[in-house]
Structures are given as C-alpha cells and as structure tokens.
UniProtKB/TrEMBL annotation:
<dbReference type="InterPro" id="IPR001258">
    <property type="entry name" value="NHL_repeat"/>
</dbReference>
<feature type="region of interest" description="Disordered">
    <location>
        <begin position="1"/>
        <end position="33"/>
    </location>
</feature>
<dbReference type="GO" id="GO:0008270">
    <property type="term" value="F:zinc ion binding"/>
</dbReference>
<feature type="repeat" description="NHL">
    <location>
        <begin position="17"/>
        <end position="61"/>
    </location>
</feature>
<dbReference type="Pfam" id="PF01436">
    <property type="entry name" value="NHL"/>
</dbReference>
<dbReference type="InterPro" id="IPR050952">
    <property type="entry name" value="TRIM-NHL_E3_ligases"/>
</dbReference>
<dbReference type="InterPro" id="IPR011042">
    <property type="entry name" value="6-blade_b-propeller_TolB-like"/>
</dbReference>
<feature type="repeat" description="NHL">
    <location>
        <begin position="112"/>
        <end position="153"/>
    </location>
</feature>
<keyword id="KW-0677">Repeat</keyword>
<protein>
    <recommendedName>
        <fullName>SMP-30/Gluconolactonase/LRE-like region domain-containing protein</fullName>
    </recommendedName>
</protein>
<feature type="repeat" description="NHL">
    <location>
        <begin position="67"/>
        <end position="108"/>
    </location>
</feature>
Length: 198
C-alpha cells in the first residue's frame, strides 16, 4: 500500500513487514505516491511517485531498483503520474494525468509510445488504469466522467460511464479501477462516493 509519504509492505494478516516512508527526492523517498503495481514475473514493485513526477521501481525487499522520469511533457517525462498497469508482455502503462495521456514503457523504463492525446480517444484528466483478460486497457477519466478503452497499441475502442441508459451507472470523477477474476469491472466513483460494478 502507499500513503502520502511512502510505501508499506503489509502481510495478509495486516502486519507491516517493511516500509519506505521518508519524504524526499532521492531513490527510496517519495512525495505523494499514487499508483502501485507488482510484476508477476520479476516481482518488482512499480510506484507512481506523483509529487516527484517519476516512476520508482522497487525490489521485493523494498530496496531501490530503478528510477525514471522527470517533470515535463516530453517522451518519458510526467506531470503527476497516477495509475499503473502491466500487460502480459511486461510492458508498463503509466497514466500521465496532467499531460492527459498514457505512456507505455518496457520493464526497464524505456519509452515505447504515448497515446490518448488526439482523436476520439483524447483523454481528459485520466486517473486509474487496468487491463482486462482480453488485454484491453480501461482508463478512468475525471474530466469526462467516463472510462475509455484502448488496445495495448493505443488504438481507441470505446468510452462508457457518462451517458448510459441506467442513471445508477453514471459516473462522476471516477478514479481507481480493476477487474476481478470473474471479469467484473469495479470502479471507484469518487464524487458519488460509491463503487460501481459493470
């Protein structure tokens, strides 16, 4: 889990088995960490260090493995990175929130591509991201109160959540998002103070 200063490693019974909780700009220090995800293959832990505008990669024992990114709008730069996802080929997707885009990287932090800045799939204040069993990316957008869907090459597929026939499924500033093992999609509907299940 993360908090406003660092990362905590919690056992399944709730015991803290390690933490990095020092605020700062050095490797292993954080400033408002936001997104976190672990690789099933390498077991590295990726953290969106939002206030430092970078991604930190930790070893399972929480020692620093890799840090990449800086503030800006160029390739591999960030303006408040938020959600993170890893696909079946170990590519990392970073929600670059204030640059209104998704950036794709190798597991070593090498820039691959960006998407979400133009066309039908133009993003507005994206926040959360997850990957379906079909390898499709689902991105929550606070600016459009919806979820945008892309393939892993950045091609836009569709958008839902703002204008739906059932008002119970209308979203307002959605943030966190994830699938369960049965394929159900759970969305943190922030301003409506609820979880919506699709």
């Amino acid at each position: 889990m993360d908090d406003n200063k660092g990362v905590h490693k919690i056992s399944i019974n709730g015991q803290d088995s390690g933490s990095l909780a020092e605020k700062g700009e050095k490797p292993g220090q954080f400033n408002t960490p936001e997104g976190i995800i672990a690789s099933h293959d390498t077991h590295h832990i990726y953290v969106a260090d939002r206030g430092n505008h970078r991604i930190q990669v930790l070893n399972p024992d929480l020692t620093s493995f890799l840090v990449f990114g800086s503030k800006g709008s160029g390739e591999g730069q960030f303006d408040e990175p938020w959600g993170l996802a890893i696909d079946s080929d170990e590519f990392l997707y970073v929600v670059d929130s204030k640059n209104h885009r998704i950036q794709k990287f190798t597991s070593k932090g090498e820039f691959v591509m960006e998407f979400g800045k133009t066309g039908e799939g133009t993003l507005s204040s994206p926040a959360g991201i997850t990957i379906s069993h079909k390898n499709q990316l689902y991105v929550t957008e606070k600016g459009t109160h919806s979820v945008a869907v892309f393939d892993t090459e950045g091609h836009f597929i569709n958008r839902f959540g703002r204008h739906v026939s059932n008002p119970d499924y209308c979203l307002k500033c959605p943030e966190g998002i994830d699938f369960d093992c049965n394929g159900l999609l759970y969305i943190c509907d922030y301003f409506n103070k609820r979880i919506v299940v699709y």
